[in-house]
Amino acid sequence: MMEMFLMIEPWHWLVLGFLLLIVEMFVPTFASLWFGAAAIIVAALAWLLPISLFVQVVIWLVLSAVFLVAWFKFIKPLSVDRTKAGLGGGVIVGETGMIVLSPQPERAGIVRFSVPIVGAAEWMCRTTGEEIAVGERVVVTDIVGNELIVRSMQSPTLSQKNRQV
């Protein structure tokens, strides 16, 4: 009778593997993904080779541990979001965006970038005195604290002013 309960077929491992993969969709930690992948591999091995339940469990545990170590040591460091990964504020200078809230002398405006820069798509901004309307394209010229200093892309640059003189 006890033999019947310990009988695990390859499809049991396959179902376990797919259930763990489905769990990963709802809990995005990349932990159950590796346990599920290991279970699917054990299902393939159990289908191809006559291996005991003890060996199947050991293979599953070893593969799960290897996959987890490989994830945390080798794969995850490659997938670090480079928009937030220790980059200095200087990477923002020269980027172009669009004004969504016009900066005024008494309050900062908001500039939106098409792609998040250093972890945010919208930044507070100020100008060096020029008036910029909502919807106008701007370029970042400097950073002061947490605010960007921007200028209109329509305004002539310093080099263009020098050529006109």
Describe what this molecule looks like in 3D.
There is one protein chain. The protein has 165 residues and is an alpha+beta fold. The protein has 2 domains: 2-78, no CATH class; 89-164, Beta Barrel (OB fold (Dihydrolipoamide Acetyltransferase, E2P)). The protein has 5 helices and 5 strands; from the N terminus they run H-H-H-H-E-E-E-E-E-H. It has a 5-stranded mixed β-barrel. Helix 3 (32-48) crosses helix 4 (53-78). Mean pLDDT is 83; it is low at 81-85 and 158-165.
Keywords:
single chain, 165 residues, alpha+beta, OB fold (Dihydrolipoamide Acetyltransferase, E2P), 2 domains, five-stranded mixed β-barrel, 5 helices, 5 strands, rod-shaped, disordered C terminus
Topology (SSEs and partners):
Layout: H1 2-5, H2 10-26, H3 32-48, H4 53-78, E1 96-101, E2 109-117, E3 120-126, E4 137-144, E5 147-152, H5 158-164
Parallel strand pairs: 3-5
Antiparallel strand pairs: 1-2, 1-4, 2-3, 4-5
Helix pairs in contact: 2-3, 3-4
Query: Share of helix among residues?
Result: 40-55%
Trace the largest sheet across and list its strands: 1-2-3-5-4
Mean pLDDT score: 83
- Category by helix and strand content: alpha+beta
Radius of gyration: 28 Å
Low-confidence stretches: 81-85, 158-165
Number of helices: 5
InterPro entries: Membrane_assoc_protease, NA-bd_OB-fold, NfeD-like_C
GO cellular component, one term: plasma membrane
Protein name: NfeD-like C-terminal domain-containing protein
Subcellular location: Membrane
